[in-house]
């Protein structure tokens, strides 16, 4: 071990890399409990749990490299993206976990949260009103009943690892639970819309592309304030604000 790497650090949680081990320290013990439970149930490659001593969870690094990073071009092959779609389908076809996840919020609760965030973005001058209004219109298609499946809930590309064309691990399961399948597909392709076709090929069934586009807008609108308040920049190239602009 040459150093301790800070992977993520904000007021809710910290993730450190120490050699081939990751230490996750979470202020909310329930999130760690969900993560441990979900990794035990998921029928896809997940990190090995080395030990769990609240509030710390130690997991082994998974082989391979992440499909990419939000705001950066992905160098992963089309076949690797398709393999990610296949893994997600395996997860969505698995028996339901015992509790709702982030992707399973009710339409009523999600609508109220979305409207509140849109109002905040405009009132505080964070984003132009026309940009918010247009994306709020696009987001409406995601606000509908859906059949619940086993969802990851935070399936950003940095959480999916591949070696060559094979998926070797999916990490960060603290938002997992019952939810909307298209939320996972939209999260994976957020900021990498050009890869959606490859993912759908691997997923192996028809998906409603309008709903996925709606989730791109909805997730971005909901994420801007959190990112700003936690020291991140949603207007960095290729990130949430660029996703919102692309919907215009």
UniProtKB/TrEMBL annotation:
InterPro entries: AGP_Transferase, Aminoglycoside_PTrfase, Kinase-like_dom_sf. Keywords: Transferase. GO terms for molecular function: transferase activity. It holds the Pfam family APH. Transmembrane segments: none annotated. Residues 36-202 form the Aminoglycoside phosphotransferase domain. This is Aminoglycoside phosphotransferase family protein. It comes from Streptomyces alboniger.
